[in-house]
Design goal:
Layout: E1 30-32, E2 42-52, E3 59-69, E4 73-75, H1 77-85, H2 94-109, E5 113-123, E6 126-135
Antiparallel strand pairs: 1-4, 2-3, 3-5, 5-6
Length: 140
């Protein structure tokens, strides 16, 4: 009997997929953690994150850093890229964006620990950094 590959249920990896119109339409995909008995950290850095100011409609730019300790599942990076890109035309404040990303990641992969940091470039002379966490970092 041929075993299924752990990536067999991924629908976006290796495919041409259009950018979702919103985070609600995006599909965060996961795959089985290859080391479920270990507590190790995975880090993603998105240096080209964009969204819109909900008041002015002007673009906001940020670096989004995600670090998590996987539970049974790991986040597939292409689906994450499409999910983050789906914020491009969303009018939301930085605080909402960072907390939404954290909530969606926790719901999709149920990590032991996850932290999302949004480092938004200055507008009007003020930079904004938002950090949202779930669980406890290993060693705490």
């Amino acid at each position: 009997m041929k075993q299924k590959q752990p990536t067999a249920r991924l629908t976006q990896l290796g495919e041409k997929v259009a950018m979702p119109a919103s985070p609600d339409e995006a599909k965060l995909e996961t795959f089985p953690n290859p080391y479920p008995g270990k507590k190790y950290r995975v880090t993603f850095d998105c240096h080209e994150f964009t969204s819109m100011c909900p008041v002015t409609g002007q673009p906001d730019f940020a670096t989004i850093a995600i670090q998590y300790v996987p539970g049974k599942s790991c986040i597939e990076s292409k689906s994450l890229k499409l999910y983050l890109g789906a914020f491009r035309n969303q009018g939301q404040f930085a605080e909402t964006i960072v907390n939404r990303i954290l909530e969606d990641l926790v719901a999709s992969c149920k990590p032991y620990y996850c932290v999302v940091k949004g480092d938004f470039t200055p507008r009007g002379g003020i930079a904004i950094e938002v950090v949202a966490e779930h669980g406890h970092a290993p060693g705490e």
